[in-house]
Amino acid sequence: MAGGLSAKTQRKVIPFEQNGQFYYKKAKKYVENNNYIDALSFYRKAVEKDPENLEYRLDLAQVFTEMGYYEESNQILLYILQKDDGKADCYFCLGCNFLGLQEYERAKECFEKYLQLDPDGIYSEDAQDLLDILQSHEIYFDNDVEVILNPGREKLYKLANKGKDFLDMGDYNRAIRCLESVVKKDPSLIFARNNLALAYFCVGRLDDAIHVCQEVLKDQPQNVHANCNIAIFYREKGLEEESEKHLQAVLSMETNDPEEIHKIAVTLCELKRHKEANKLLKRLLQYKPYDIKVLHYIAVSYFNTQRYKEALKYWSKIDKIAPNNTISSFYKRLARAVMANEREFGEISYHFQVPYEEIIYRIKKINDLLKLPHKDLKKRWNSSDELLALLQWGLELNDPSIKRAILNVIASFKDGKAESFLREFILRKSVSDDLKREAVMLLKQMGASEPYIAYLDDNIVQIKIDVGAKNLPDDLPEVFYNVVNRAVEMMKNRYEEGFEAQIREIWSGFVAAMSPYGLPRIRKPEVWAAALELYYCLTSGLAVDKVELAYRYGVSYSSVSNALRRISFALLENEYNKVKPYLQ
Asked: Where in the sequence is the domain holding 571, given as residue range(s)?
């Protein structure tokens, strides 16, 4: 009878759902104990429970800052400022983040804005001290190369950093163009020469990469980065003895510079010196305890020496820091399968990516998902974050067509989750400007409220899209009039009154935006007319069958899509050129 009562009682138990305050208090306790990884999890939960609570978001941003995730912190802070632009503490936090990102002019702007809004605030002394340092140029350095802040030198330095960004994004040819230009004008920027060697290596120009390293080592025989690079390049060329000589040279150097320790550790990883790499990576962890890639490298070094439990511990940390990443979870499953004798052991790569076979499988899965009826895809989107995690992974691939397809499908859901994702996406420094411009247009097309805050051309800008010009120039070739007239003719009796003025305004805005650079060659007016109608529908929030629309005009959808992209980019670029940096 007692057992029956117990079962009956259990059936009546109602789960107790905690509110945001509960998770917020737990998070603060973890912060007090310097346990930022668990604090991060609970702050996220607090924000999820009470998304309108800006204090929860501000504390979450501060934890990201403490962990060195400056861009993630900035995304949250800029979201808060869009809700409450008088929240002075956000500007101080932004300034600290920009210091961490070595964007000193922007840090200066933020500290000045903070003091303007709250001259007697709790951070006022700190802000003034940091401003004094910035104004005296004491902090402008990188890789032990001091930058003299004359306009020409600073411009070269920015171009070198742009080349490094292209290198990190996998856009090697653009990286080479940037870095070659810098090195030609100022060979004394050694870090640019080292990055150029890496870019050459990545495109298969092995001899050029080796030559650049040799030239650097003539000037600086003890340069850690050049010695590490050439050790890898010689190994690739089959020159084992030469490779080992340069590796031993760096291993014999004593350094406490985190970036140099990082470079040596990664070189050991590349050369499959797993035990030595593990030892150095654990030392590096003292400087970068929350760096996902460092944690992954340590996990792989343990896996490759068949210490699976230790590897799992580090991949689990990554799961907590970046819960929607699908890479650490893949390797955790792999490690457990090997431990259970379900898979044979084999060494894995240190690259923070899944193996080639899994990449192919996932790309096929994404393509199959994108072919599903929209209602089925929307159901998956709403039911869990699994689809979002897979699409996020796809956006890290170096394939522009896949990235564009993923952004379009996310925008097609037209809900708060999709809007939040795209707004965060356009603030990522690591994403190409072209892709961010496309995401801005998708936000406009899905009806997301303006302005849009984006990181474009190394500036954080506020964008409002207003097509502007009303009349076409008198000396315009006839074909441009044919486009807009054809669109108006095809749209008659199918849209509400007032559509014609908007169509003509959009086309006039496009022509005005393109005029300084050269108007497009229009061979088939119907293609551009269809694109014009499609742009009108998308930006007005009107349902439209894109393929059927193209068919009605007697043209292919791919042609219409290309024309639409040109219209969208031109109008966005025109508006971008008018805006001022958001933080000024």
From this structure: 478-576
